[in-house]
Write a structure and sequence with these properties.
It contains eight helices and twelve strands. By secondary structure, it is of the alpha/beta class. It has one domain: Alpha-Beta Complex (Spore Coat Polysaccharide Biosynthesis Protein SpsA, Chain A). The longest helix is centred in the last third of the chain and has 17 residues. It is globular and about 85 Å long.
Length: 311
């Protein structure tokens, strides 16, 4: 570090050397450090705006209708992300649909506002049919892009072969810009939500990308991070009315009546494995989440005492 005399010898006017707390150009700045995110910034710290909880992520899930095998994968992702030093939280968004999926736009708009309300730097939106890898979120965060998706594939698709992005991208080809991408798994810097209108979340994937583009944002897809979904897009216009109505009836009853699939990994070892299973058979990747998970930050209910009043 150069001394005051070094700076004077270099030709700097002594009036402009800020070397004391009484100097006209010295300003007090005392920010509390929350979490370990500041340790992760590295070179990014030179250009990032200050944040009370840097590298904090709110994981937002549209509903709690978990497809088999998806809940425990999300739990493992949360554990891995936290172990890497990120501040991470989870919120399942209440299903506001009367008919299946008819309020998905409202739920995503609600999720975006939740992330802003709570002061998170990042929002990671996932659907309940996404089979996430434990490092999916960490890999996407590493790009430090306002909007980045993983590359999606589908396990079962009603109309196989139809694209999930434009252009269609090959895996393991790096980070690629896209016109649009399927909205099953999305990472946002929450500042993006300051400009997006609520109606942006309604309609098809191209409409959402179009709304982003009108505010100067482009979707990037990380083709090295691949996430498989258990099913493809609904593509309801490709179904007959009888088939569609039958599916709606089954889903309506499923939403109202069926327990949610929060089972542990198939090879879960309660003695030597990581994580825990509570009395209801719910898998938690970290034991403290068993306690935290029973409190609803939105409705204010505690210790599992939920009601239907807020639905």
């Amino acid at each position: 570090m150069r001394t005051r005399q070094d700076l004077i010898d270099a030709g700097i006017d002594p009036r402009y050397i800020v070397d004391r707390a009484t100097h006209p150009s010295w300003h007090a700045s005392s920010w509390p450090v929350v979490g370990r995110g500041h340790e992760l910034l590295g070179p990014k710290a030179s250009y990032r705006l200050p944040h009370l909880v840097p590298e904090s992520v709110l994981v937002l899930v549209a509903s709690n209708l978990w497809e088999p095998g998806c809940w425990y994968r999300l739990q493992n992702l949360l554990r891995h992300t936290e172990e890497k030093g990120y501040t991470v939280a989870l919120q399942e968004v209440d299903d506001m649909s009367l008919m299946p999926y008819d309020a998905i736009g409202t739920m995503r708009s609600h999720a975006a506002m939740l992330a802003l309300d709570a002061g998170f730097e990042w929002a990671f939106m996932v659907d309940t049919d996404a089979m996430l890898g434990e490092d999916t979120l960490v890999r996407l965060l590493a790009h430090d892009r306002p909007v980045v998706f993983p590359l999606l594939t589908t396990k079962h698709d009603f109309m196989p072969g139809l694209p999930l992005s434009s252009p269609v991208l090959a895996p393991n080809t790096g980070l690629k810009p896209a016109v649009w991408g399927a909205m099953s798994v999305m990472l946002f810097n929450t500042k993006v939500f300051n400009c997006l209108p609520p109606f942006a979340w309604w309609g098809h994937d191209f409409h959402f990308a179009q709304c982003l583009a009108h505010y100067g944002h482009r979707i990037y897809i990380d083709t090295d991070t691949v996430v498989e979904t258990t099913r493809g897009p609904s593509r309801n216009l490709g179904r007959s009315w009888d088939d569609l109505w039958s599916r709606f009836q089954k889903m309506f009853e499923h939403i109202r009546s069926d327990d949610r699939d929060r089972s542990p990994p198939p090879d879960f070892d309660s003695v030597f494995g990581e994580g825990t299973v509570d009395k209801d058979g719910v898998y938690w990747a970290l034991e403290q989440w068993d306690r935290l998970g029973m409190s609803d930050r939105i409705s204010g209910s505690q210790n599992g005492q939920h009601s239907l009043e807020h639905r």
